[in-house]
Specification:
The protein is 58% helix and 3% strand. The chain contains 6 helices and 2 strands; from the N terminus they run H-H-E-H-H-E-H-H. Helix 2 runs antiparallel to helix 3 and helix 2 runs antiparallel to helix 5 (88-103).
Length: 143
């Protein structure tokens, strides 16, 4: 209604963004829609990296757990190993992985049979190898 009221509203929403997970999820998902070109279905990787860094660095919503800086690992992995664009599924599943990995550093929630995008599968394997200092043994069942 007025500029001062709009400023006050934005300030209150910005403050809430650090503590209200529902609002954070709405903003996160809307960021993808607003960030890509209207005619495109995916976001350029370099843009997604900037948005992930902004969103997952917010006080209260930092992508870290007790001993792991997940955001730093995610950015390092993507810069080194991913050359494709970021589609909506990858964007949204990264948010799911964000929530689960903050609570479970061992990533026991992840399995090869899960419905994670391949980039997250590759990320989990990469993190496990990085932690163990080498390739992780293949646990594939064979006859």
């Amino acid at each position: 209604d007025t500029i001062p009221k709009q400023k006050a509203y934005i300030a209150s929403q910005t403050k809430l963004l650090s503590s209200d997970t529902t609002l954070f999820k709405r903003v996160y998902k809307h960021t993808f829609v607003c960030s890509k070109e209207r005619s495109q279905k995916a976001l350029p990787l370099e843009n997604a990296l900037v948005y992930w860094e902004m969103l997952f660095s917010r006080p209260g919503m930092r992508w870290v757990s007790a001993t792991t800086d997940w955001l730093a690992l995610w950015l390092e992995f993507l810069n080194a190993k991913w050359t494709k664009t970021v589609n909506k599924d990858m964007w949204n599943q990264t948010l799911e992985f964000f929530a689960k990995s903050k609570d479970d550093e061992t990533m026991s929630f992840w399995s090869e049979e899960g419905a994670w995008p391949s980039v997250i599968d590759d990320f989990v394997i990469w993190v496990r190898e990085k932690r163990s200092g080498g390739p992780v043994a293949d646990n594939m069942e064979t006859d």
